[in-house]
Amino acid sequence: MLFQEINYWAVFVTGILSLVLGFLWMAVIWAKPYQKHMYGKGEQTNLNVSKADKIQSFVIYILVSFITSIAFAGCLELWKTGGQAFGYDGDSLMNAFWFTMLLAAGYTLPFTVGKKVWQFKSWLVVAVDTSYEIVRFTMLLLVFWFWV
Q1: pLDDT class of 148 with cuts at 50, 70, 90
Q2: Which chain positions lie within coiled-coil regions (predicted)?
């Protein structure tokens, strides 16, 4: 069964790593331009978010990170197995990388580009969010691929 093949320790690790990567990406590497374009705030302005709201956001995001990791692990297992049935090399890391980029594009672009077309955020926000997802999905691939 598919869910028996998933490495749940890797799910836990990638869920936590997604949070770490997100913090580094949004609050360290791209902090000033991202916060300015995402929230319309200068570096002197605070969003005035309560501690309870911050904790709630953290809990929701970690749950979503774990769900994303489980979904990706399942897709990767299906992709590997499908190689035998459909005649592609399911054991090739390069092929798995392009499969991962296809998943990242298909599942994240509607949300990241939606910030531009529906929320009227800047293309910088789209670029930062999309690049985060590309790096995150690549991280997911590498952890699930090499975890023994």
Answers
A1: low
A2: none
